[in-house]
Amino acid sequence: MQLRNLLLVLEYDGSSYSGWQVQKGVRTVQGTLERVLSDSLKEKIRVCASGRTDAGVHALGQVANFYTTSSLSTDILFRILKAHLPEDLRVLNLFEVSLDFHARKTAVRKRYLYVVCLGNSLPVFLQRYVYSLGRRELDVARVREGSRTFLGRHDFTSFSSPREKNSSPVRTIFSLEVCLRESFLFFDIQADGFLYHMVRFMVGELLMVGFGKKDIADLEFMLAHPSCTHHRFSAPPEGLYLLEVQYPDVDPYQGLRLKESGFIVPLWVREDSGA
Q: Which of 17, 46, 88, 159 could disulfide-link to 201, CB 3.0 to 4.6 Å?
């Protein structure tokens, strides 16, 4: 039996999941996906993702891979997953890659979106997908100014929660765009990787700057003095989306394109779907 390595692109609503990683007694994305794959391929499947999203965090283009000895075609498996996965978890792409591809270890760039609603006008239908500031006033210009502090290569220990002791806390932020569209504020962040809770701490602290509760100098101090003991605000999970993961030799989104589809954030759709 020949070993194969299959790549998945996943879209999921994280609202009713206790995060990506398998945990006993709770519903997780990994556990749900592995159960369906194992039943379909008649063998024990272990899926590795580009990163472990937290409870309540969403994914628009999560990348994962798994090994199998099954000879089942990717087209048939795609249709099986489409039929048997729950409505809040969907496979967008599925194809075979080289055995040395690893969704987490070979990733070179990740892109997250965080969405904030300004004002007190958030519909109840969007409460699981956006962080609402309510009536609090936010200085968006100050937020934009503060966002430039994070650009470049830094030790981001001050903007993360302790997790992996042996991994380096140094990351490179390639871009951090703050865009206001109507009553929604979008944080579009691209980096070579992210620490545990890093995006939520970065956004949370930028919001504190926008509220006037912290200065940009405070962000600079936290970068210069890496420590998890700083008093920090973590933005809640519901506004966070994993949008895209890039690799040096593989395009996970082949046959897909990002499109504004009427939802708050753009979605990956098939190029030949006409959608």
A: 159
Co-location of 116 and 207 in the same domain: yes
Which residues are tagged catalytic? 54
Check if the beta carbon of residue 248 is closer than 8 Å to that of residue 102.
no
179: domain range? 109-241
User: Which region, left, alpha or beta, applies to residue 197 given φ > 0 means left and ψ of -120 to 50 means alpha?
Assistant: left
- Amino acid identity for residue 231 in this structure: H
pLDDT, averaged across the chain: 95
**Confidence label for 45 from pLDDT (cuts 50, 70 and 90):** very high
> What pLDDT is stored for residue 59 in this prediction?
98
Is 266 a domain residue?
no
On whether both 98 and 162 belong to a single domain, the answer is no
Region of 56 on the Ramachandran plot (φ > 0 left; ψ -120 to 50 alpha; else beta): left
Q: What is the DSSP string of the chain?
A: ---EEEEEEEEE-GGGSS-SS--TTS--HHHHHHHHHHHHHTS----EESS-PPTT-EEEEEEEEEEE-----HHHHHHHHHHHS-TTEEEEEEEEE-TT--TTTT--EEEEEEEEE-SS---GGGTTTSEE-TT----HHHHHHHHGGG-EEEE-GGGS-S--TTS--EEEEEEEEEEEETTEEEEEEEES---TTHHHHHHHHHHHHHHTSS-HHHHHHHHHS--TTS---PPPGGGEEEEEEE-SS--TTTTEEEE--SSSS-EEEETTS--
